[in-house]
Structure formats: structure tokens, C-alpha cells
Design a protein that fits this description.
By secondary structure, this protein is of the alpha+beta class. It has a single domain (4-138), classed as TATA-Binding Protein (2-Layer Sandwich), CATH 3.30.310. The protein contains four helices and eight strands. An eight-stranded mixed β-sheet has the order 2-3-4-5-1-6-7-8, sandwiched between helices. It is globular and about 50 Å long.
């Protein structure tokens, strides 16, 4: 996919809390600064090389500091556990994931998110991909 993943909440209503997000990334995260985290999924050998499956992410909040507005993952690693956590965010909550690409790709697995995009941001419909399973989501990467 991209060098950064942007997981964006479409609504404060039904948005995850910080605890919800951290639970999905558990037990692999360590807080480095306020709302900035290190993810370490360990090492693996790939084509004879040791690969460090690690990256960083931060959490942005709505004004009330309770509801998560978005999560940015910097230099995402290739560990499937990261992709599973991202899928859970876009499945359980009205959120979508996107990343720098041409053409723009917006992915969600949440019905409420899909409906809100259709109502509030109809210009994004042509870029929207709705997935119904982790396998379908993971096949896009």
C-alpha cells in the first residue's frame, strides 16, 4: 500500500475511544510521547534477511478529547497483525483507510461509514471500496 496509512473517522457518533484503538494494537504498542506510539510485531526472516516488523502511529482526537478522529500509521510494516488491527478499526467503527496513491483509494468495511460517505461526501463514491472480510481487505494490499 503506501508509506503512511490514514484511518479517518467519518463521525464522532460511534467513533472509537483511545482505549478501543490501543486494545486493537495490543500487546504490541509502547507509548513514546503523548498519543504517539511504537508498534513492534517482532522479527522474521524473509528471503534470507531479518525483517523488523515495526512502525509508529499517532492518534488524533475530536475537540472533546474522547472520540478518536483519526489514526496515522507511519511507514507501516508488513506484519499481518497490523493489517488485522486496521481492518477491525474500519469494520467496527465508522472509519475508512486511505493512503497516498493514484488514483485515490478509500476502503471501509463499515455500513454506517459507507452511508455517511454517500450522504456527506458523494464526490468520494467513485474512490470507495467496501470490503466484507479481512481476506478481501488484505487482498487489496
Amino acid at each position: 500500500m503506501g508509506i503512511e496509512y490514514f484511518i479517518i473517522g467519518i463521525s464522532r457518533d460511534g467513533a472509537p475511544t483511545q482505549e478501543d484503538v490501543l486494545e486493537l494494537f495490543s500487546p504490541y504498542w509502547t507509548e513514546k510521547e503523548e498519543n504517539y506510539y511504537f508498534l513492534d510485531y517482532g522479527k522474521e526472516v524473509y528471503q534470507g534477511l531479518i525483517v523488523h516488523n515495526e512502525c509508529h502511529f499517532n492518534i488524533d482526537f475530536h475537540e472533546d478529547n474522547l472520540a478518536v478522529k483519526g489514526v496515522t500509521i507511519f511507514k507501516p510494516c508488513s506484519d499481518v497483525k497490523l493489517e488485522q488491527a486496521i481492518f477491525q478499526l474500519i469494520y467496527k467503527f465508522p472509519m475508512f483507510v486511505t493512503y497516498p496513491s493514484e488514483p485515490l483509494l478509500i476502503i471501509t468495511a463499515n455500513f454506517k461509514c459507507t452511508e455517511m460517505i454517500k450522504e456527506q461526501y458523494p464526490e468520494l463514491i467513485e474512490n470507495l471500496t467496501v470490503v466484507s472480510s479481512f481476506e478481501e481487505y488484505n487482498s487489496l494490499s
